[in-house]
Amino acid sequence: MGAEGRLAHKLFRDLFANYTSALRPVADTDHALNVTLEVTLSQIIDMDERNQVLTLYLWIRQEWTDAYLRWDPDAYGGLDAIRIPSSLVWRPDIVLYNKYCLSGPLPSAPCADPSRPPNAQRALSNAPSALCATPAPPGVSPCLRTGETCSETTASGIPTLSPQGRRASAGLRQRKSGPAEEREGAWDAPAITRSSCRVDVSAFPFDAQRCGLTFGSWTHGGHQLDVRPRGAAASLADFVENVEWRVLGMPARRRVLTYGCCSEPYPDVTFTLLLRRRAAAYVCNLLLPCVLISLLAPLAFHLPADSGEKVSLGVTVLLALIVFQLLLAESMPPAESVPLIGKYYMATMTIVTFSTALTILIMNLHYCGPSARPMPAWARALLLGHLARGLCVRERGEPCGQSRPPESPPSPQPPDGGAGPPAGPCHEPRCLCRQEALLYHIATIANSFHSHRAAQRRHEDWKRLARVMDRFFLGIFFSMALVMSLLVLVQAL
User: Fold this and answer.
1) Which residues form the Neurotransmitter-gated ion-channel ligand-binding domain (predicted)?
2) In this structure, are 246 and 311 located in the same domain?
3) In this structure, are 255 and 289 located in the same domain?
4) Which backbone phi and psi does 323 adopt, to 5 degrees?
């Protein structure tokens, strides 16, 4: 063993000869012990929107001054820092207040009980016994395994990553402050935290979340232990980018709260993780197909009525939207408010439903047949006149902007049964005016032809009105679908 090793062993024996880790290391018990908390975010492991649980991989560094660990470096060969197991020294009982609690054998770490008010939690005389889970059976390591990673809970209540059975180590180093020299303890520990986070999906998939992690002492009040953050925010230097969430920052805020059960204040530090969802995958897989389908639905008004596929197109589009709605419901967490993309799907399905219903009504106008009633004069003047010119609905060979003037069908003249020779004498024995039967049949044929022509004109008028309505609703529904799709897609920019 080298000289430095012998000096370290000697220093270790001298420091811990009468040292106890059960009491706060302060020279005066009336003074508060200052603890500096530093958090480094390494990775977002999981964001469970359904259970509203955020799982993070953090590095937590705690620094405090231990009044009992003092030595003169010159007496130990200039040795000004040693590293020792964290279980040998006093450590702050800093815990995560909003830790997510599960049922079953989990680490014996204190956590906030949602069913108990904060003052009742503070009133517990033995705070570490307020556990969020049942302790592990004897002989079983109380660790939560995820793959090959084991998360062990130390005495402070913060889980430390221990893939190979190692625990976090505490370090003691010299800090000069004026004439006196103090020894400052630093405890670095990797941690996998599972905290509760209120997830608001009203703007899904363009939502932003704010998840707070509140750290504070579980048993000591502000007069005994004062916790403060190091810096204005957590460090993101070693952060591994997440494929679903983009981290906007992690500011820190210190609060001092007073509970109803106790008169002394309780300080805590809250690190608020600001997240914004990466919406590219949702836009490509869920939103963009719905936009294309919604723009395809109004084209049913442009489809010829004789094709027989107008209603089939609307029903097919509606079924496709229902399928996408079911896919969205599986990937979307349940919430009280309807997400933005869910509102868009419902609005699109409503538009497609109304367009299909109007298509059926317009097809009834198109196939009304020759037995239909004559079109009202106001409809002929307003719809076949002004609206047809505005929408460029014209007959074959008719220029746009001009409509066929409305024609009144000639009134058929019933055959005159008393038709006879004209007034005055007719001396031609073979004159047609003397053929009463022939004249009667000719008049009947002429009246039938005029009636047929009038029925054909009525039928053509209703068919033309159906084309005008198709063109009108095509513009209305296509504009609605386009504006609604643009409003949703603008959120992605």
Assistant:
1) 9-99, 187-278
2) no
3) no
4) -60, -45
Please list, in sequence order, all residues whose beta carbon lies within 8 angstroms of the beta carbon of residue 352, skipping any fewer than 6 positions away: 294, 297, 314, 317, 318, 321
- Give the Å distances, CA to CA, from 239 to 43, 92, 317: 6, 26, 44
Confidence check: pLDDT of 461 > 80: no
Same domain, 183 and 146: yes
Tens digit of each residue's pLDDT (9 = 90 or more) over 236-257 = 999 999 999 999 999 999 999 9
Report whether 367 contacts 466 (CB < 8 A).
Answer: no
For residue 309, the 8-state DSSP code is: -
For the cut 90, the answer to whether the pLDDT of residue 210 exceeds it is yes
Q: CA angle, corner 99, sides to 96 and 101, nearest 5?
A: 145
User: Which is nearest to 462 in space by CA: 400, 370, 334, 325?
Assistant: 370
Q: Which domain holds residue 75?
A: 3-278
Residues 173 and 258 in one domain: yes
* Largest CA-CA distance found in the chain, in angstroms, rounded: 162
CA distances from 486 to 288, 342, 371, 474 (A): 11, 16, 45, 18
Distance, CA of 456 to CA of 7 (rounded, Å)? 116
Backbone dihedral angles phi then psi of residue 453, each to the nearest 5 degrees? -65, -40
* Domain tally, the chain: 2
Q: Considering the domain boundaries, does residue 424 fall inside one?
A: no
CB atoms within 10 A of CB 232: 9
